């Protein structure tokens, strides 16, 4: 009798779970229910089971990367923490630190970065560190592991980093701050845009150049601009 009940319960569990691509698997009962798929390992951020032709193989992402919960086979199922999730009740594998990297893979704060030079970051590949720089005008955010607007990065002094401070904002009749563009002497492509005292360095789309007479990007053929540097 008990046998039949547990079979029924198992069937229910299977039919309820087939909608989702990945599901939690406990180590001891890994059964491939689909021909090719991935299963997340319960309690782990970076371990998973890969099923190929109903054959289960236990795998772990490279140190510093997490399993992507909604990944669809055969996409590579590991990604940097900025693109994959590790839940509060899950833990990653024991970190394999090297002299320069706290994980084998990932993007980390660089010791070369300062509050006024916040575009620098460190990329680790197999425990080897490479010093990198965000695109112009962007600051590395150690909390998200990505390049971000400097005003969104607490460890960055945006004004000093950009070398530009917005003049006090002006407001329309509804109390909404005006957005104002500022040209940069010697640059035809870049300009500063101020949104309520927050400055961001922007780049005109390709084929456009910044026209300081109208303070916006215009068709490149319609603006005379000589790049100084
Ligand atoms: C600032 O420049 C951008 C890019 O050309 C433009 O879309 C925007 O309208 C400009 N803003 C103002 C207030 O001129």
Automatic annotation (TrEMBL):
Residues 1-17 form the signal peptide. This is Chitin-binding type-2 domain-containing protein. Keywords: Chitin-binding, Disulfide bond, Glycoprotein, Repeat, Signal. Transmembrane segments: none annotated. GO terms for molecular function: chitin binding. The keyword Glycoprotein applies. The keyword Disulfide bond applies. Residues 29-88, 98-158, 163-227 form the Chitin-binding type-2 domain. InterPro entries: Chitin-bd_dom (IPR002557), Chitin-bd_dom_sf (IPR036508), Chitin_bind-dev_reg (IPR051940). It comes from Parnassius mnemosyne (clouded apollo). SUPFAM superfamilies: Invertebrate chitin-binding proteins (SSF57625). It comes from the Eukaryota. GO terms for cellular component: extracellular region.
């Amino acid at each position: 009798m008990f046998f039949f009940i547990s079979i029924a319960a198992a069937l229910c569990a299977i039919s309820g779970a087939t909608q989702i691509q990945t599901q939690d698997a406990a180590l001891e009962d890994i059964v491939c229910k689909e021909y090719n798929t991935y299963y997340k390992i319960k309690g782990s951020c970076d371990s998973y089971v890969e099923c190929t032709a109903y054959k289960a193989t236990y795998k772990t992402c490279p140190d510093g990367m997490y399993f992507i919960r909604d990944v669809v086979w055969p996409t590579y199922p590991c990604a940097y923490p900025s693109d994959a999730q590790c839940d509060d009740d899950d833990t990653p594998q024991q970190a394999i630190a090297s002299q320069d990297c706290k994980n084998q893979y990932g993007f980390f704060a660089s010791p070369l970065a300062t509050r006024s030079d916040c575009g620098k970051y460190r990329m680790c590949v197999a425990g080897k560190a490479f010093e990198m720089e965000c695109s112009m005008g962007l600051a590395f955010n150690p909390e998200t592991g990505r390049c971000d607007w400097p005003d969104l990065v607490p460890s960055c002094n945006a004004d000093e980093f950009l070398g530009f401070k917005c003049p006090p904002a002006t407001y329309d009749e509804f109390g909404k701050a005006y957005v104002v563009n500022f040209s940069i002497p010697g640059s035809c492509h870049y300009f500063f845009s101020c949104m309520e005292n927050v400055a961001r360095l922007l780049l005109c789309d390709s084929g456009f150049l910044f026209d300081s007479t109208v303070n916006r990007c215009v068709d490149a053929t319609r603006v005379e601009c000589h790049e100084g540097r």
